[in-house]
Amino acid sequence: MHSGMDYAILTGGDIAPMGSEGVTAVHKVFEWAKTSRKGFMLVLASNQPEQFDWAINDRMDEIVQFTLPGLEERERLVRHYFDRFLLQPSLTKSHRIRLAENIDYAVKCAEIAKRTTGLSGREISKIAVGWQTAAYSSEDGVLTEGMMDAVVDSAIAANRQKQEWRHYRLPDAVDAVPN
């Protein structure tokens, strides 16, 4: 059911560039929220919830865990971002992206979904942006299967590195370093 509440969305990417003015901006949002007749709701979201201070977690009325996407969700995400960042731009004359003709993209997306266990939706979207970048930066603007694999390999390696760093910072984390 629709709450009818007014809302504001802020991310770290909105606040960080403000530097010391970021605190003032957050205070302005809370002052604005006080004017609502229906109250307000604060939602904190993170792929690294262990980074939240214990006192913050203790003051949250509800904590909802969103797990990493499973195989089916990853395949839908890969297909969605493939469409958004590659197929749609390839259909316009103003973009110079072309897709190699020898790739079965349905099969390739399913293969990539299987390889990306442990990656978040954001990490999967960044893979598709990487494919787009690879195509734009190539001489002929064609995205090949090899280019796709290289971007996926890089994303998987980056995820492993982040997990290792997390393990060293939080050695008791159960799922910190996947095998």
TrEMBL record:
The keyword Hydrolase does not apply. GO terms for biological process: mitochondrion organization. One of its GO terms (cellular component) is mitochondrion. Keywords: Coiled coil. GO terms for molecular function: zinc ion binding. It comes from the Eukaryota. This is Uncharacterized protein. It comes from Schistosoma mattheei.
